[in-house]
Each structure stands twice: as structure tokens, then as C-alpha cells.
Write a structure and sequence with these properties.
5-stranded mixed sheet; 4 helices; 38% strand; mainly beta; 298 residues
């Protein structure tokens, strides 16, 4: 097995500054095992690693790095392949700095405004601006950092634009809709994706944001509910009440009510203050037959 070191730089420029380089190495990720069996043997011989469900380790196989994880148990057969990364993308560090697990260089954004082709000089970008909102239209491709974290410690939401031409095409961010946001104390993780010819940044994780791209395509407000299997879905917001002062008749037929309220569902009711002696409520009781009932108020 082999170990990886970390490096970094410190610079300041234009409301952006690199704060520090933290060599905070997670030994589980800094160790590359020569084989799956080497990883298993090292776990059993080590006080650092323990067989626990969810433990993942890196193994060098051919031209790539394979991440193995204990899934569903801690026996040898539960140690399964989780992901594969090209060696050049994972192991280059120091001058290349592509290891997403090790280099921790903080870069601070202290001035609000629009950032086109943002110069990436660290893999942790912290916004602390108090003078106005920060807007990011793209990040300069960095040979040092292909995975970056944007942390919002400012006083404003951060705006992220989709494929904004103010940034060079190869520096743009690919989103499923026009904009995304990072809420106060929120965090967004970006990766530079080249597979499939994309050659753009994409959001791969988010915390503390109102941005929910999994519900794209909505053309109106909707409520997000969690159903069976803990899966969220967008559900149409239905108005079940209306007040109509123009209705003065207490003898409206189903046909007349259906003409006024064509697309409303069962349970929908109309309060008619000026109908009858003390007001009338017409209520839809069957949306299939479009049947209504009259409730006389006393």
C-alpha cells in the first residue's frame, strides 16, 4: 500500500483570498491498497481500521482506483466494489492536486458581486461577504482542484447561474434549470465533469439550499411531500375554498356551479355571503359526477 501527501499555496487578490492549507488527511482515503485482499488483511491487522458496515477503502486495480465498501455486513463477501476512478484523476497531488480527499485549501470571497470565470485557488471557497449577494457564473478550470466546495457564511443567498455566457464555455456550470442558490450556512459541492463531452462544472451535492433540481419541470408552486419509501415528490397545491359575493341565488344547479368552477376537486366549497337569508355554501361532493350540495347558513 502507499500513502498520499498534500500541498497548497497562499495568495490574495480582488476580494478573494486563500486562507490556509490544512493537511487534514483521512487515513482511510490517504491509503491506497494494492489489492482487495490487501485491504481486508490490513483491516484485520490494524487498530486504525475496523470492520463496520459502510467503511470504504481505496484499492489500486489496473489503471484505476477502486473504492470498496462494506455493504450489508462485515464479512469478506460484503466488501463490494462501490466506484472506479482513473488513477490520474485521484492520485495526482501537489502540483496537480486532484485528490478530492486530501488537499484542503480555503479561499475566501469577501466582496459581493458577479464572479465570472472565478479563479479557483482552493478547494474550499468560503463566502463571508456582507455588502451584497455573490453570483457565480463559472469557475476557471484548475489543474489543482477538480472538486470544490462552496460554503455560504455570508449575509445573503449565493446565486449560481446555468451556462451563463459571461463565463467561458469550459468554465460554465451545468444546471437543469436557469439558476440555483446556496442558502445561509449552506454548502454546495461541485465537480468538473469531462465524460460525455460535457466539460463543465456540475453540482454533485448540496446542503442548506432551497434549490431542488429533482423537481424540475414545475410551472407553478407545489408542495413537496414525502411518501412511501421516504421518497419526496411534488404535489399540486389545491385551493379548496372560494368566497363569491356575486352569487345571490340559493338555487344554483350542478350545471351552473360546474360552469363557474370547472376544474375544482371534491371537497371544494364556495361561500356565497349574499345568497339566501344568512348566506349559502355550495360544496362539491363528487368530482366524477360533478355533484354539489347546498349548505344553508343560519
Amino acid at each position: 500500500m502507499s500513502n498520499i501527501n498534500s500541498t497548497g499555496t497562499v495568495t490574495t487578490a480582488n476580494g478573494i483570498k486563500v486562507l490556509n492549507n490544512v493537511a487534514n488527511v483521512d487515513p482511510r482515503k490517504a491509503t491506497i491498497f494494492t489489492s482487495r485482499q490487501d485491504a481486508l488483511d490490513s483491516i484485520d491487522a490494524s487498530t486504525l481500521f475496523q470492520r463496520v458496515n459502510g467503511l470504504s477503502l481505496l484499492v489500486e486495480e489496473g489503471d484505476g482506483i477502486v473504492e470498496y465498501i462494506f455493504d450489508g455486513g462485515i464479512l469478506d463477501e460484503n466488501f463490494k466494489q462501490f466506484s472506479v476512478t482513473e488513477t490520474s484523476e485521484l492520485l495526482n497531488n501537489g502540483a496537480d492536486g486532484l485528490n478530492p480527499f486530501i488537499d484542503e485549501v480555503e479561499q475566501e470571497v469577501i466582496i459581493g458581486g458577479v464572479y465570472d470565470n472565478f479563479q479557483v485557488e482552493g478547494n474550499i471557497i468560503v463566502a463571508t461577504n456582507t455588502d451584497g449577494k455573490a453570483v457565480f457564473t463559472g469557475f476557471n478550470i484548475s489543474e489543482d482542484y477538480k472538486i470544490i466546495y462552496l460554503i455560504n457564511n455570508s449575509n445573503f443567498e449565493i446565486q449560481i447561474d446555468n451556462e451563463n455566457s459571461s463565463s467561458l464555455e469550459e468554465n460554465q456550470i451545468s444546471l437543469p434549470n436557469n439558476t440555483a442558490s446556496v442558502g445561509l450556512q449552506g454548502t454546495t459541492k461541485f465537480a468538473y465533469i469531462t465524460k460525455g463531452g460535457l466539460n463543465k462544472w456540475q453540482i454533485i451535492d448540496v446542503f442548506g439550499s432551497r434549490y431542488m433540481p429533482e423537481h424540475q419541470g414545475l410551472d407553478q408552486d407545489a408542495a413537496v411531500v414525502v411518501g412511501e419509501g421516504s421518497v419526496s415528490r411534488a404535489k399540486q397545491i389545491v385551493n379548496l375554498h372560494d368566497t363569491n359575493e356575486a352569487i345571490t341565488s340559493d338555487t344554483l344547479t350542478d350545471a351552473e356551479l360546474n360552469a363557474l368552477y370547472r376544474d375544482y376537486t371534491v371537497g371544494f366549497e364556495v361561500f356565497c355571503e349574499n345568497a339566501g337569508d344568512n348566506g349559502i355554501i355550495y360544496k362539491n361532493i363528487n368530482n366524477t359526477t360533478k355533484t354539489w350540495r347546498k349548505i344553508v347558513l343560519t
